[in-house]
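A reminder before we start the practical. When you read a complex entry, don't treat the lines as separate problems. The point of joint prediction is that each chain is placed relative to the others, so the output describes one connected object in space. Small molecules and nucleic acid strands, if listed, are placed in the same frame. In the example below there are two entries. Take a minute to note the order of the lines before looking further.
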Amino acid sequence: MRQQPQWLMDLRAQASASAHSQGVPSRKNEAWRYTSAAQFLLTEDISAVGPVDGEVPEVKSKALDISHSEALPAGAFFGTFEEALHHPQAAAALETHLGTISAWRAESLDAWNLARFQEGVLLYVPAGTECSLPLEVRHGADGSSPQWNRVLIVLEDNARAQLAEIHEAASDSTPQRSLDITEIALGQGAKLVYGRLGFQASDAIAWSATSIRQSAASQLEAFAFELGAGYARNEIRVFLEAPGAEASLRSALRADASRHLDMQTVFDHKAPDCRSQQVVKGVFDGESTGVFHGRVYVQPGAHGTKAQQSNRNLLLSRKAQVYSRPQLEIENDDVQASHGSATGNLDEKALFFLRSRGFSPSHARALLVRAFLREITDALPWPTLRGRANEFFGGEE
Amino acid sequence: MDRTPLLQISNLHARVAGHEILQGLSLTVNVGEVHAIMGPNGSGKSTLSQILAGHPAYEVTSGEVYFKGNDLLAMPAEERAREGVFLAFQYPIEIPGVSNSYFLRTALNEVRKHRGQPEMDSSAFLELVTKRMEVLEMDPALLSRSLNEGFSGGQKKRNEILQMLVLEPSLCLLDETDSGLDIDALREVSKGVNWLRAPERSMVLVTHYQRLLDYIAPDFIHVLAKGRIIRSGDKTLALELEKRGYDWLLEEAGL
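Here is the predicted structure of the whole assembly.
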């Protein structure tokens, strides 16, 4: 993107100023108590951005790879930000929504991405239309590192789409580092099935934040899997801004060795009669660490809210550990909310039962791990990606 | 009847969590025989079946167990299963997320691989398992559900017996399979056990009640008390126990 429009240059200059003033979050910051932001954002990244009012980095291509664009309905757009600028409605959607959902003024890494992103992909689906096939955005295809990618999904009223962001292992053996932002705007009655699927290698360091703004009666069905990366933190923030919006999240984390996986969720009920449901399941082996912090906010006016939150973890070794923190903040009485957290070991009885039927201990363990995660993985509506996820669990069946 | 020993237990002592449960148990089961082991609660009946199946929580402190002439205690649980030892559990567990049919086919193929037979494909398996379910009058829909999840008590016990009918083990250990069953379920479960009864197969029925033995006639009955067998006899012993209880035997044994 050689020629960035003025509005974008202005926005990025503001983001750069905000990023510099926010700096890198330290461990003293409660939100970063268990995971080090300095693993994702290095000193060299900061100095590379340049002065506050100075140059804005160029946007290059091919770090992000997209597919199935032939499935688009008339008037829809799926392509890079640069291409979007030549498409009137897509350009308008970009200008209207970019940087308005991700809270970059309060979140340091969000600000760094906005200042620094090198490539962006926009999916724009006009009112009342539907993308008939699932779309894919592939991160990391070109092996460059660090990656600062940005995705914007705009579904106008009653539009429908399915999109999976897939984080691949690098084709060469370059260690990957990425700081990615996704913003999603759902119009009234719009419906999106969304996946953030991490299939990286164990040397990958990945941070991502997906922020979703939902209008009345819109529906989000989201999946967040982190199955291969070595050090990762994913944030899913859902803002239910108008009545009747519904959001669900199913998340699966799997780590072994000394990997570290952190899942942060926010479901902010701002309007009446919205529903949210989240199930986050983790499997931790070796000396790995899991972190879950889930927040559900129910604002004073959000009567008739239904919110469910569940975090369940399986520890496969004595040295694996999990910090789980489910949190509900409810500001009115007319609410049905539940939350729960449970962390335990594989069921010894089940293990012995399977062995007594001829299963080897390793096969029995793999089967029970798969069984634990099935509630999450089986719900993924894309068979090929479901198969890939299952490979991480020694999957058969 | 063949007098070749299949299972030879001699002077077995075992403990769990520091408690000595088996205190010198000896028993020989020949090929083709059906033995019933009865006894009061806490006599060590379930411990014996768990030890034979290889449960790691039980510690054998002395004694020997040979199965087909091999040291059974030296084998891990999965190897015992592949060699043909099968335990029908007293309390079958539920495993959500593992389908009954996948589980059963994998278990069968583990045994077949061990025997040097080719693995069975899903259509051949389906044909086999459907026939075995008919013996037990089981609803075929249970096959596609998660293992025992939401099954009634009777369905769970039938599912254990179904596994036995499919795996065709050479030694069937039934641990209180009759407990918690109503009369219809007991009849169907017994039908399955009798269906599998064969000259090349042996069975050990562990039970608290005579009731099961009305349906499955054993060749021998043993009374277990305080971790060893205090009386052995034929099926008339069960009727005597039904009438007189266990106390007279315990007194005779000085327990």
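Discuss with your neighbour: The interface with chain A takes residues 53-56, 76-78, 80-82, 86-87, 89, 92-93, 95-99, 102-103, 106-107, 110-111, 114, 146, 163, 167 of chain B (CB under 8 Å). What might explain this?
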